[in-house]
Amino acid sequence: MENKEILEFYKQTSCFTHLGYYKEFAKNLPDDIEKICALQRMQIIHPVILQNANNGNEDKDAWIWGNLNQILPTRLIYEEDYFPTAQSMIAELLRKNPNYNIEREAKDKIHITCRGQAILLASILKAKGIPARARSGFAGYISDDGIYWDHWITEYFDENDKCWKLVDADEHCPGKDLDDVPFEKYLFGGEAWLSLREGKYKEETILYASEPVTRGLKAAIRGLFYDFHALMNNEIIFLHMPKYITEKDYDLSEDELKELDELAKLMLNPNKNFDKLQEIWKTNAKFRIMQGALND
């Protein structure tokens, strides 16, 4: 039986997952996880789809997301700069077109990455009273190139099966069953960090494609901290990293590397080690002092 304190914690929202006046809207969306994902996926176009189309390398599945020729070239490809929170995403979608359905035209969709998809799904589940949390790590199932690409997904507690499940709203599309992603197919940030430190993966196989593009331990450290913050209900944006990390350009001392080893080990089982992770969150200020964008 899952700890009730933990379940209640993940029903709580952050500034990123709090829906405010849109909570009732979210509560009235379908309860079935497959239907929620199918509906949500058709409100959003991943920026990579647009980049490929603009470069003449249109994705073979791009038609799924509608007529991309409708999208004005003056719009940002990455709109997460505008809409970093779930509330702002829903507000913009309803501003463009109040009909939140699978028939939404491409011109009325927003351009959001996997992080946005993960926190939007988590916010909807939380609004319904379901414990949920965004997770950051790496997925090998996105492509066939042997690379574990940076990827955010959502984890929620299934009351019927009494267990946590992974669901990938970002990759949810025809032909892909990602409503219950096997845990062994997803490499959480802490797992990626330890796997590289122990030599289980080559540096070039772990890639963070979001700016700044990083590989190996530099990529894993981002996945590690994004996931740690997400586990603490603080789903920071891509531009944020602990200041002590960025000031050293990720070139840490051996003691600092070992400190992250210990954090990563606790994150391998965040439910079992929930109290210890909370204590680190509350007492280790350097893990929470962010640098990026306007914070320097």
Strand percentage lies at: 5-15%
H/E element order: HHHEHHEHEEEEHEEHEHHHE
| Integer-rounded radius of gyration | 19 Å
- Largest sheet at a glance? 6 strands, mixed
Report helical residue fraction.
25-40%
How far the N terminus sits from the C terminus, by CA atoms, comes to 43 Å
How many DSSP helices?
11
* Unreliable parts: none
What does this structure look like?
- The strands form 3 sheets. Strands 3, 4, 5, 6, 7 and 8 form a 6-stranded mixed β-sheet that branches.
- 36% of the residues lie in helices and 14% in strands.
- A hairpin with an 8-residue loop joins strand 3 and strand 4.
- The longest helix has 16 residues.
- The chain is built from 11 helices and 10 strands.
- By secondary structure, it is an alpha+beta fold.
What's the short version?
This protein has helices at residues 4-9, 23-27, 33-41, 47-54, 86-96, 114-127, 189-197, 216-231, 243-246, 254-267, 274-283; strands at 44-45, 110-111, 132-139, 148-158, 163-167, 186-188, 206-208, 214-215, 241-242, 290-291.
Annotate the secondary structure layout:
Layout: H1 4-9, H2 23-27, H3 33-41, E1 44-45, H4 47-54, H5 86-96, E2 110-111, H6 114-127, E3 132-139, E4 148-158, E5 163-167, E6 186-188, H7 189-197, E7 206-208, E8 214-215, H8 216-231, E9 241-242, H9 243-246, H10 254-267, H11 274-283, E10 290-291
Parallel strand pairs: 1-2, 4-7
Antiparallel strand pairs: 3-4, 3-6, 4-5, 7-8, 9-10
Helix pairs in contact: 5-6, 7-8, 7-10
